[in-house]
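Subject: sequence -> structure tokens, single chain

Hey, anyone have a minute? Need the predicted structure for the following. Not urgent.
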Amino acid sequence: MNTLFAPSALLPSGWTDDVRLTIDARGDIAAVDPGAQPDGAERLAGAVLPGMPNLHSHAFQRAMAGLTERTGEAEDSFWTWREVMYRFVGLLTPDDLLAIARQLYAEMLAAGFTAVAEFHYLHHDPEGRPYADRALMSRAIVQAARDTGIGLTLLPVLYVAGGFGGKPAGAGQRRFLNPVDQFLRLTDALAREAAGDGQLRVGIAPHSLRAVPPEALRDVVAGLGRIDRTAPIHIHIAEQMKEVEDCLIWSARRPVEWLLEHAPVDERWCLVHATHMSEEETAALAGSGAVAGLCPTTEANLGDGLFPLLPYVAAGGALGIGSDSHISVSPVEELRWLEYGQRLAARRRNVAVHARGASTGAALLAHALDGGARASARPVGAIAPGKRADLVVLDPDQPLLAGREGDRLVDSWIFAGNAPAVRDVMVGGQWVVRDGRHHDAERIARDYRQVVKRLAAA
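Reply:
Had a minute. Here:
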């Protein structure tokens, strides 16, 4: 057993002073004792928050962040960005993916993300041929998580078609493609390897309705039920208006509407983006128990649009945050821009919370911790017995946090600036960040720079 003493900690009941935490050998929180004495426990430097789950990541895209900010011949959009991404993804080797994912995950940890749901669709070699080990690229992601210490929900992606109605996939998508039976064998093998590992969980990600026809979606969900009935299911949906329009042409239904009518959507599901929904879809998604996976910095970078946050939250909908394309790697910025986008649309302030005098930052944080934990399907997102010991210690010497306590501390962390305010990070009972720096940052960055320089020259 390991014991820690926090001067203040955000527990499920709220901010509490003098909290003693007991952590067992598995890396789980065994006991939480408020109003305690240190009694030889390791004293933490500052206020302690639960670590934030990042519910949506495409790790390889971190290496192309900033490389798509030039106008093209056509009007730039998500769809022109996607073509640039396809060209980039054609260059990557398994070793490249490992180096990029390590760098990304080290950055996540230093920012306060302690778990990540990796929406992993890069399966095959550049010609679309399976590697001798079909799980080779997936294992690169798992190794990166283990090397850095971040908790991982691995979501192998099923990608079958290039558009609604089973349109053939293009050359840029050939590295992603798997028939359902081979995909389920891959998922089963990865799930068996993850069994008993407190840091790893395996689910699936049908990429989108345009990439997974109805029969494939039905078969993969049924197949997952034979592997693990509690495993998470994530899907991209309704990110762009063109997707909505194409879905209407194909099915006479909007994407979220079609999915809720044809799939067993419940608490296991995470609908990523869900940006463009009707009022009826918004209410129905909120009532389904599924989590809306919101990625505000990526959605802004790609010009997606704004999620209908107000009616969704009013209807009791669950949500979490992800950094998606990693144009930014910061839970603070995702939460800030989730709120700021709504302020710009509504032309008023403090939109995400309705109770008089309530903290906007605390409300956003609570939503993201709960939804992220549910989407990760791992016991994270809270400082409580039985949860993983994933902890973020804020820096008491950071000027932007001076004189702040409790929810005002959270508000200032999210809204008061961009200076790093995370001091120490623990994942699964192990310290991975100390004094704002990942323990292996230098080696990880050196390997990453070598890979990126080679890719830039290609």
